[in-house]
Design a protein that fits this description.
- About 19% of the residues have low confidence.
- By secondary structure, this protein is mostly helical.
- It has one domain.
- It contains six helices and no strands.
Length: 198
Amino acid sequence: MKKILLVLSLISLSLMAFYYLNADHEDMIEEDVKSPIEKSVPSAKTETVKTIPVPSKAVVSDNSVDAKSFEKYIDAVEEDWNKNIDDLFLEEAETAQHFIAEYKKLKNGYEAERERRYEKFHRMMEEKHGPNYSYSPSVDEEMYNEKLVKAYELSLSKIIGVEKMRKYMQVKDNFNRKLEDTAKNSKDGSDSFLLIEF
């Protein structure tokens, strides 16, 4: 379990670093902001989905990471997620490009804010325990991240509206469920996967 958490943390950090280095930096976080959007139950409609290759067990063994395999997996997840977002926002042609641009701006801000938070935490832990400390997310960190996601969801809902936000939440939930199912059903026994948080 620790290995999986470590691998997922490494993947998240590398995604955040990529976005952080390639994004405009905006401070968009508001503390204690509650999103007016309630997660609705995803629709039961079936759709054709692209299978995303799950990294093999060899990727997770001995705390080493096969960079090519993870890069391919991350690229496939990002490409599929971006296609889902484009499909969602392209339903209404006159506002589509604006919504996509605003979402990507918010996504980059979220990734940058999260990266700054993790960097600060890891520096503190290295000072306290040395460079080889073992890490697992605390309840406080998970609560902070949940607040961060809610703040960015609130910002997005103000831009795209409540109805489109409900559709976004359904798309995100279905996409994450697909990632989880793909990992659980992989023939190589690997059960690690990424989740889209925002």
